[in-house]
Amino acid sequence: MSKIFTPTNQIRLTNVAIVRLKKGGKRFEIACYKNKVLSWRNKLEKDIDEVLQTHTVFTNVSKGQVAKKEDLIKIFAKEDQTEICKEILEKGELQVSDKERHSQIDSLFKDIATTVADKCVNPETKRPYPVSIIEKAIKDVHFSVNVNKSAKQQALDVIQILKNEIPIERAQMRVRILLTGKDARKTKDKVVKLATTVEDENWESGTANIVCLIDPGNFRSLDEMIRTETKGTGQFELLNLKEMVEGDQAL
Amino acid sequence: MRLVDSKKLLELQNNPSNIRNICIVAHVDHGKTTLADSLISSNGIISQRMSGKLRYMDSRPDEQQRGITMKSSSISLYHAMNQEEYLVNLIDSPGHIDFSSEVSTAVRLCDGAIVVVDVVEGVCPQTRLVLKQAYSENIRPVLVLNKIDRLIVEMQLTPLDAYVHLTQVLEQVNAVVGELFTTEVFENEEASMEKKEKEALNKEDNNFYDWTSALEEADDSHLYFSPDQGNVVFASAVDGWGFTTLTFAKLFSDKLGVKEEILKKVLWGDFYLNTKTKRFMKGAQEKAKKPLFVQVILDNLWNVYETVVMRHEKDKVPVICEKLGIKLTARDLRHTDSRVQLQSLMVQWLPLSHTILNMVCEKLPSPKEILPEKVERLMCSRIRDFDSFNIETQKLKEDFLACDSNENRPIIIFISKMFSFDKSALPENRPKALTSEEMALRREKARQLREELKQNNANINRQSEEKSPHEEQEKSAEDENEKEKVTFIAFARIFSGKVKKGDRVYVLGPKHDPSKILNCNIKIDTNKKLKDLQSDEHITCAEIKSLYILMGRELEDIDEAVAGNIIGIGGLEEHVLKTATLSSTVACPAFSEMQYSVVPILRVAIEPTNPSQLPQLVKGLKLLNQSDSCVQVLLQETGEHVLVTAGEVHLERCLEDLRTNYANIPITVSEPIVPFRETIVEPPKMDMANEEIASQNVDKSNTKLEDPIITIYTNNKQSKIKIRAKPIPIEITKLLDRSADLLKAISQHIKTLQTLSMNDKLDNKMEGLYLNGTKHKLSERMLKLIETFKEDLQSICSKLGPDWKDLVNQIWSVGPRNCGPNMLLNHTADYCTKYLHHEKEIREDPRFEYEGSFVNGFQLATLAGPLCDEPMMGVAFCIEEWTLEKSFSDDISQTFGPLSGQIVSAVKEGCRKAFQVQPQRLMAAMYSCDIAVDQKVLGKLYAALGRRGGRVVGSDLQSGSASFRVQALLPVAESFKFALELRTHTSGLAAPQMLFSHWEVIDIDPFWRPCTEEEYLHWGEKYDGVNRAKAYMDSVRARKGLATDKQLVQHAEKQRTLSKNK
């Protein structure tokens, strides 16, 4: 008669998030609570018991296979399971849980919207848009947030898309350019091409003094151009980082 | 059925002495509109039966729904009395506090006011307010004690009790009037005393001093309400009856066999009828007799009510009717609702409209009798003396007094508000009834068309093709019309002269000052409109396109109007913003500003639900601004559109208007964004438990002591920077704040100098110098300003001790945006910078090339602090050391980008770190509140302030009245809906006004945890309460998408587990 295997003292883990670490050719896993690993990594959670389901290191959590002691000593060079768990928590790859992902996307979305609101103006009023309007507009164009790209990069992308939805433009930089020498005229033509509007231009004894608005994206290339074209004689000076109206105004 | 048509009204308009311009004012729900209804029904515009239920003057749907009036509207009524015919221009005004600006606009145009008081509720906050408004505008009030039926039916008082109650209410009202009077007398006395003192000083002879108060001399007998003077009506507007003592004197003089005159005098007061001697005696109260008022009037009223309403004795109704000499229709007699029966009975016995209109015509002045004081008050504000006007202007006073409509009199019209009106409802656009000839003509045309159609049957297709573009055009035209479906009508009164359609008049803005214009003789461009005007011009020229008589919901078109009337003027929307004066002469002064008792204080941010509809919203907001005198619309620096209204109800009405009338788009409303500032403070000496820190063991593990000097390297390790942050004393911050413009100019100048000096280095010295000589030198004035700024700074610094002594020479830059209240200080030993001492030039130093980047790093750091990315305030960053080893190997600069960029980020990072090692604090914007409050609710006001983190700065009693003036400070972040809370808690007896005053440090560390012995004792290791600074900081961080220390899940075990059916 075969024996019937009856698990009597089985601990069944629910609500599990697994963190894996491959080290020394072996895979180690630990069982954590959901939605807690990221806050441990961000140093918000200080109580290890709130993060770990159990202080044991597994080779496979779902099957309940515990890692061998020799392996642990061999690979981690320490015996204390809690310490090993902490190392795995720090370095291992994890499953991001629903709430964590949600809050991540949420804060990234807000970050993008804040960045867009910070960089852009309404060309009609020369004033920034409130963040809430930008958020609404971003949702309206069905922009989806990518967690792996930086907020700034995505903000620049979304500005292009938003232009179809609302009148919006990058806030312009105001710069002054001084050009001297023989090639001044030639260089000037090139410079003006990059500028959006030339506000003031005058010539005095062969020196061009130009005040113009440029797109912030062109700043680098313009700087480069003036430096190379004029061989260091031209001047490039930033007057105003963002061209916009300041102060409150009654309608 | 209307009894009087507009022709009759037009006729009456020409006789100013028979015109009465009055308004009805009262507390909310005291029965203004009901009273107006019953007056209107007397003219047959609405039915007698519907009066009190229809609320004719509440034409807006939301007014009807909520049952409160929200705007003042006017109607012209006809009244005949003693063979004279009168025109009564009646303005109904709202009673809710949110709309008291509408009351101001109404009161401004009137000569008299009907003050309605609910006898059950007595004098309420708004009653005080309207009495005050009427008093300050110098208009004569009459009193209506309304809702007497409630005393009988609801409160079930005996006639004698009711009489006592009525005298008490009357006394309350008179007490308010008396208070107003004494306050004014005291004010005048103070003013005259000041004058006297000045004179006395001149004379050097002030051993004589007058101790008698002006109050004793001032006569106030004419002010009070008293039934025997005939300016009090006892009424029940809902049941449509009302009487004065005169009414009953007439009715009973025969019955009692006494002369009407005598009876009139004794009906009110402590008189009783001695039945034996048949004489009226004084002292009814003493002898426990019934006063005559009770015996003759109230007893009878009570009788009628008790029989008809309370006991429902139907069979007795005809008997009563017979006694009173009234004939009820059979329908009324059969009516099952006894209240209706009573109403029809009372309306015939004591008709309310008749009584009130009689009193109005008798007691209130006509436009001709306008008081000279009132004229002066209209023409000049309180601050200005009438005598300071030009002679030409002073002459106009006579025109005011004459109220003459002669052609050669100047036209003077005052517009107190603009109200929107549905364009399709204008008289000229209303479909007119067709005459029979026109009908015939149309029929003929239709027949012809039909015949043509038959003939051209074959061509139909082609025709329709031709038609279609035409139709489209029509459609687009229609769309345009639809867009502007509202038009603005000016609510105006003619004070002098006669105005016709097509007249051209000057439109004088509220800031217009005749003496200026007359002195310098400015040409006025007739084609200009309001939007073309410069900030110092206030005159436009406009043609009067249409004139209307205001008839409540409707307008009647007229061709001309004469002095003394209240009219509507169309076609002025491009010339008048909110109020204006129209005149045929520029010498006419702008009417003094209206005194609003309520200032708009509820701020909300408004945005379209669909972001692309922003232009419509802006247009709608502009229209709203024009139509409402008590609304402010702002476009804030953050780009938010902020709407400032007087209160919740007002806000809701404005939103309703925006959604349905002006903008026609869905909008969302939110709390406006509240700005904060970040700062650092000196390390505190006391802990949170108010114990000295130095004498205790401080838990060192929590507060790691860091070196206040931060050392930071650029990415390529070429440059080393040492930064220390320290708080700037408040005096210097204030000075920096004040001279922001100057600082900005200096920074701009320095930047140009920098580039120029670099220019100089190169071979173009000649040109550089030339440029320097012409343009880029500071003007004399600027130099002087800088000099004074330096002196100011020096004098402040010298007081502050050794730390700040050399400040003037250390300033390197200020920020953010080159003009803020933060400083970059140069403490380096070997590098010179120039800011205020701009004459020094240093060019040889290799570091000079990167100075701009260095300053930029500082600017960026101060623009967004580490706490929650808000600007810093009052922080000085001292640069202790800056070294630069320039190596020109290209590969290094390529891996890390250009050195200038590296310096920017290094300085920014360094500043932030230096900031973080100091005790950080958040600064909140503060409102200064000025609250007028009745002394009864002073305690509740303090509680409401305390709940919102505000504090009281000062309070004092206003002389002559029972109200306090409280000055308090309140954080802007807590001010949302503060007015509402205050009103609900103080039953409307406190009226706040708020104004931004300053920034204030919130004296809690946002990262505070208990760390001293005493703190552990108080709070344990973990503080569980709310840290205000942290709460603010977290809310801003959450809004901006920055990381907060909030955990997603507090307790890991308490999450919902998805069971897997195992």
Automatic annotation (TrEMBL), chain A:
Residues 173-241 form the Ribosome maturation protein SDO1/SBDS C-terminal domain. Gene3D superfamilies: 3.30.70.240, Ribosome maturation protein SBDS, N-terminal domain, SBDS protein C-terminal domain, subdomain 1. Residues 15-101 form the Ribosome maturation protein SDO1/SBDS N-terminal domain. It comes from the Eukaryota. Keywords: Cytoplasm, Nucleus, Ribosome biogenesis. One of its GO terms (biological process) is cytosolic ribosome assembly. InterPro entries: Ribosome_mat_SBDS_CS, Ribosome_mat_SBDS_N_sf, Sdo1/SBDS, Sdo1/SBDS-like, SDO1/SBDS_C, SDO1/SBDS_central, Sdo1/SBDS_central_sf, SDO1/SBDS_N. It is found in: Cytoplasm; Nucleus. GO terms for cellular component: cytoplasm; nucleus. Residues 110-171 form the Ribosome maturation protein SDO1/SBDS central domain. The keyword Cytoplasm applies. Required for the assembly of mature ribosomes and ribosome biogenesis. Together with EFL1, triggers the GTP-dependent release of EIF6 from 60S pre-ribosomes in the cytoplasm, thereby activating ribosomes for translation competence by allowing 80S ribosome assembly and facilitating EIF6 recycling to the nucleus, where it is required for 60S rRNA processing and nuclear export. Required for normal levels of protein synthesis. May play a role in cellular stress resistance. May play a role in cellular response to DNA damage. May play a role in cell proliferation. Belongs to the SDO1/SBDS family. Associates with the 60S ribosomal subunit. This is Ribosome maturation protein SBDS. It comes from Bombyx mandarina.
UniProtKB/TrEMBL annotation, chain B:
Keywords: GTP-binding, Hydrolase, Nucleotide-binding, Ribosome biogenesis. Residues 463-481 have a biased composition (Basic and acidic residues). Signal peptide: none annotated. GO terms for biological process: cytosolic ribosome assembly. Pfam families: EFG_C, EFG_III, EFL1, GTP_EFTU, GTP_EFTU_D2. Residues 17-267 form the Tr-type G domain. InterPro entries: EFG_II, EFG_III/V, EFG_V-like, EFL1, EFTu-like_2, P-loop_NTPase, Ribosomal_Su5_D2-typ_SF, Ribsml_uS5_D2-typ_fold_subgr. Residues 455-481 are annotated as: Disordered. GO terms for cellular component: cytosol; ribonucleoprotein complex. GO terms for molecular function: GTP binding; GTPase activity; ribosome binding. This is Elongation factor-like 1. The gene is LOC114248619.
